[in-house]
Amino acid sequence: MRKNIVAGNWKMNNDLPQTESLLQDLKKHVIPENVSVMVAPAFTNLFQAFEYLRETPIEVIAQNMHQSKKGAFTGEVSAQMLKSVGVNTVIIGHSERRAYFNETNAILAEKVSAALDSDMQVIFCFGEELNDRKQGEHLEVVNAQLEQGLFHIEESQMKNVILAYEPVWAIGTGETASPDQAQEIHKYVREHVKRAYNTAIAENISILYGGSVKPANAQEIFAKPDVDGGLIGGAALKAEDFMAIVNAF
Ligand code: PGA
């Protein structure tokens, strides 16, 4: 059985006191047993967040990592560094990393391997831009992202992968893919995973939707059979909103 997952991507928001205050608000809520809840604060606050949430079921995850084990990569953070502060899951391939930091499918493939080889879990993001959709090329774009960035990994490693479909035109724009649009892609991707690997892997992999998910639309989106949760940006910055989304299954 695949898991329901709601992960909050805080992006470059919240200094340490703000992080503590948001975590304190989150801690006031009961986490339902049918959902895995994750939060991704900035690198600087990961350790404190981990300590803070130690007694809770909320997992602290990272927004990015470097593909090398260590070395002269100024400003970067490795898998081992993340693991040493209690982080065992990392988001890879977010569209902001692809667009603003030139992370190509080839670089992302290396990052995926580096994380999985370090026994970390990966949330692999993919999704088309508005222009791709207008030209009817969204399925090809999504295919290429999966084939070039993810499908090189071994069958045995796929159990540590979570997928996140995030149409770029829906991220931070207030524009959400309709539940049917999300379902169409999720189903398509699950079929693709089945072809590339096998039925068991395809049925067990969680596929999250991301892009302007909020309390008002989460329930309708999560109700779709191939949507197993959400990757939440803006609405993850308010405990009330985030928890309303967590409770939307
Ligand atoms: P958003 O961001 O919820 O603010 O659209 C989603 C994401 O980037 O993961």
Task: Sum up the structure in keywords.
249 residues; alpha/beta; eight-stranded parallel sheet; 11 helices; 8 strands; 14% strand; binds 2-phosphoglycolic acid
Describe this structure as you would to a colleague:
There is one protein chain. The two termini are 15 Å apart. The chain contains eleven helices and eight strands. α1 (16-27) links the parallel β1 and β2. It has an eight-stranded parallel beta sheet with strand order 3-2-1-8-7-6-5-4. The longest helix has 18 residues, at 179-196. α1 (16-27) crosses α11 (239-246) and α5 (105-117) crosses α7 (138-149). It has 249 residues and is α/β, with parallel strands linked by helices. Helix content is 41%, strand content 14%. The chain has helices spanning 16-27, 46-53, 79-84, 95-100, 105-117, 130-134, 138-149, 179-196, 199-204, 215-222, 239-246, and strands at residues 5-9, 36-40, 59-60, 89-92, 121-126, 161-165, 207-210, 229-232. Bound molecules: 2-phosphoglycolic acid. The site of 2-phosphoglycolic acid has 13 residues, from β8.
Strand content: 5-15%
Q: Can you give the helix content as a percent range?
A: 40-55%
**Which residues sit in consecutive blocks of at least 5 with pLDDT less than 50?**
none
Coarse morphology:
globular
The counted number of beta strands is: 8
Structural class: alpha/beta
Number of helices: 11
Please give the radius of gyration in angstroms: 17 Å
> SSE order in H/E notation?
EHEHEHEHHEHHEHHEHEH
Distance between the termini: 15 Å
Estimate the mean pLDDT confidence: 96
Strand order, largest beta sheet: 3-2-1-8-7-6-5-4
Query: What is the subunit organization of this protein?
Result: single chain
